[in-house]
């Protein structure tokens, strides 16, 4: 089993990153029994969804996915609706709401736009884990291109910060893993 998954991950590292979703779907069509392991191991571009209850945008990834549904950080509801979807405990949900408000302010100040989402979940050992997501799209209008050297450059900045936290007495231990996906599409002569 490990050999097949390792081979699929090795193949994903060698294929063009601009076609990650297409390549991942092709592998999942061939070996659907590895879907959870593969989706949990390969970072994909963050999807932008809208919470139907609040009208606010949020980011979708493997960390807020349950089956084919994604949980919104704003309403704590799944889209499409899911009756038995995983949600954080009441105490952790309060922290998740506060974290979303804090990172939404940070995102606006640092990125001057874009979308952020924070998702938290309880761990079996009594601790908790979470992910902080940022996505900022840049269009040609944002680049302040001059008339002489106008180009249609576009791009995006996407970051995924996954952490685990556990309390040990009066101290806490945490582990953080960050992934940055930078995409640049230029049509002009220079970068």
Poorly predicted ranges (pLDDT <50, ≥5 residues)? Answer: none
Number of strands: 9
**What fraction strand?**
25-35%
Shape: globular
Note the main sheet: 4 strands, antiparallel
Helical proportion? 25-40%
Give a structural overview.
The chain has four helices and nine strands; from the N terminus they run αααβββββαββββ. It is of the alpha+beta class and 191 residues long. The strands form three sheets. Strands 6-7-8-9 form a four-stranded antiparallel sheet. Strand 6 and strand 7 (128-138) form a beta hairpin. The longest helix is centred in the middle third of the chain and has 22 residues, at 90-111. The radius of gyration is 19 Å and the shape is globular. It starts with a helix and ends in a 6-residue tail after the last strand.
Please give the structural blueprint.
Elements: H1 2-14, H2 20-30, H3 35-41, E1 47-50, E2 57-60, E3 65-66, E4 69-71, E5 78-79, H4 90-111, E6 115-122, E7 128-138, E8 154-168, E9 171-185
Antiparallel strand pairs: 1-2, 3-4, 4-5, 6-7, 7-8, 8-9
Structure in a nutshell:
The protein is an alpha+beta fold. The protein has 4 helices and 9 strands.
Any descriptors?
191 residues, 4-stranded antiparallel beta sheet, 3-stranded antiparallel beta sheet, 4 helices
């Amino acid at each position: 089993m490990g050999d097949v998954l390792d081979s699929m991950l090795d193949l994903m590292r060698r294929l063009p990153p601009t076609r990650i979703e297409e390549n991942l779907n092709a592998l999942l069509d061939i070996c659907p029994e590895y879907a959870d392991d593969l989706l949990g191991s390969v970072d994909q571009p963050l999807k932008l969804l809208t919470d139907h209850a609040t009208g606010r945008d949020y980011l979708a990834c493997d960390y807020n996915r349950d089956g084919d549904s994604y949980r919104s950080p704003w309403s704590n509801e799944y889209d499409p609706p899911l009756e038995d979807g995983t949600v954080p405990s009441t105490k952790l949900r309060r922290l998740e709401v506060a974290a979303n408000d804090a990172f939404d302010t940070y995102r606006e100040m640092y990125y001057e736009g874009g979308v952020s989402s924070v998702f938290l979940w309880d761990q079996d050992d009594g601790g908790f884990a979470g992910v902080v997501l940022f996505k900022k799209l840049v269009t040609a209008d944002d680049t302040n291109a001059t008339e002489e050297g106008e180009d249609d450059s576009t791009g995006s900045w996407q970051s995924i910060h996954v952490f685990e936290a556990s309390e040990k007495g009066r101290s806490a231990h945490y582990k953080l893993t960050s992934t940055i996906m930078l995409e640049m599409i230029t049509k002009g002569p220079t970068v």
